[in-house]
Design goal:
This protein is α+β, with helices and mostly antiparallel strands and about 450 residues long. It has ten helices and 21 strands.
Length: about 450
């Protein structure tokens, strides 16, 4: 009885029962909505996480780097070069995929034939651009086309054939240029991602991706310095274009390819920005590159050479020849000496020593540590201007065991030695492989076919 009374006391009025029912329905709808929205929230979080890892992250890195770098890459058109038989007219379509419109430069060459087309990179907002020397060499007029289609005329062109670099000063008027931020090529490692940006086959602002395949490469077309190797696609028209890191910073200037057919086959070369910066500063300030020299020829102390001269492998850089009355001769450096240090810097590779020496002030006195007959000696050399073609040997020196040339050879022998030194070394592309510049040239189909057979050097390096 008490129980029944208690239940009655808890009975709700009709109005309260209605409110209770509405509350339950609202709660149920709210819970349903919460469970409905929860998968959406989780899905968004998953997408955000996916964006930060894996292929999507790499894709975003490529996009961001390209967006930063593309505005600083230009197309370079040269007019009036005498080597027109090898150059290609960028106003004539040859794209095998689709017809190309006539070149927008129109008659900017004042009636001159467009003889070369490549790429370039803006270095400063004041109107300085860097490109390859082989793109603009001997041109009577050079036009630079920006990404928005505007064209500027180069008022000054200075080139350095030894490094295959050239600088352009542009008449910019009120045009605002976006210079590219410079990276650090010395810190780039094999396997690092890079983007190549340029105008291959006249397709402006083309971006290709790859990695740093190797460092310290040397090829015959570039007499001084070493190169970065990349598998990012580089083709005719890419010469002088940018190789950038994933921050969109310039780490190299694309200059050559190793190819059997004149186009990309997976091996491209770029001049490191550490070299580009120095050469560009010299060209812009002096119109030429002033280089210091000691007056010696150098060879790598590899296993074969070391065996011939009875020296440890990799000890330092072997002095193969000393030029009479040169700075090195006056300092007491002799053939078969091994240079261990120069200006306090340890050196092991000929190109490494060459790079250090040539950037020193001409006339300055620099300490040199050498190894001779089991002893280390400290000498001082007064650097002279580079006016003799002595250089790093691109192949093994011809040495009888324990002997080296004691003085500069006779003229006939010297010419033969130079001719022989031009032959490809074992670590370079085989003679059947063309070291081609990444510049577009005209009327070249027959030349390209011949190049595949004769290994004639082309410009796509």
């Amino acid at each position: 009885m008490l129980f029944h009374k208690f239940r009655r006391s808890l009975s709700l009025s009709p109005a309260l029962r209605k409110i209770s029912t509405l509350t339950k329905v609202s709660t149920a709808i709210g819970l349903a909505a919460a469970f409905t929205l929860l998968p959406t929230v989780v899905s968004s979080q998953a997408l955000a996480a996916d964006e930060l890892s894996g292929p999507r992250a790499l894709s975003k890195a490529f996009r961001d780097a390209a967006k930063v770098a593309i505005p600083s890459v230009v197309t370079v058109v040269a007019y009036g070069q005498q080597s027109g038989a090898e150059n290609s007219d960028p106003s004539q379509p040859d794209n095998p995929l689709q017809p190309m419109p006539r070149d927008r430069s129109g008659n900017r060459g004042n009636g001159m034939r467009a003889t070369g087309l490549g790429s370039g990179v803006v270095l400063s907002s004041e109107g300085t651009v860097v490109t390859n020397n082989h793109v603009v060499e001997s041109a009577e007029k050079v036009i630079v086309r920006l990404q928005d289609g505007r064209e500027l005329t180069a008022t000054e062109v200075h080139g350095d054939p030894d490094n295959d670099l050239a600088t352009l000063r542009l008449d910019i008027g009120d045009v605002e240029l976006q210079p590219m931020e410079l990276g650090n090529s010395d810190q780039m490692e094999i396997g690092d991602w890079v983007l190549a940006i340029g105008s291959p086959f006249r397709l402006e602002a083309t971006v290709s991706a790859g990695i740093i395949s190797a460092k310290g490469r040397t090829i015959d077309r570039i007499r001084r310095g070493s190169l970065l190797q990349t598998d990012a696609a580089i083709n005719p028209g890419n010469s002088g274009g940018a190789l950038v890191d994933l921050d969109g910073r310039l780490v190299g200037i694309n200059t050559a390819i190793a190819t059997r057919n004149g186009s990309y086959q997976g091996i491209g070369f770029a001049i490191p920005i550490s070299q580009v910066r120095w050469v560009a500063e010299e060209l812009l300030a002096h119109g030429r590159v002033r280089r210091a020299a000691m007056g010696i020829r150098l060879a790598e102390l590899n296993a074969s050479v070391a065996r011939k001269v009875n020296l440890p492998v990799g000890l330092g850089v072997l002095v193969y020849e000393v030029i009479n009355n040169s700075a090195a001769a006056q300092a007491g450096i002799q053939p078969l000496d091994v240079i261990l240090e120069f200006a306090g810097q340890r050196v092991r590779e000929p190109v490494e020593l060459q790079n250090v020496v040539e950037r020193m002030p001409i006339g300055s006195t620099q300490p040199v540590k050498i190894y001779r007959k089991g002893e280390e000696l400290d000498l001082n050399v007064v650097l002279a201007p580079l006016d003799d073609p002595t250089d790093v040997l691109r192949q093994e020196p011809h040495l009888e065991k324990g002997k080296a040339d004691q003085e500069k050879p006779a003229k006939g022998d010297e010419e033969a030695a130079k001719k022989e030194a031009k032959q490809p070394a074992k670590d370079k592309p085989s003679p059947a492989v063309d070291e081609a510049p990444a510049e577009e040239k005209t009327e070249a189909p027959a030349k390209e076919e011949a190049a595949a057979e004769t290994a004639e050097a082309a410009s796509a390096e």
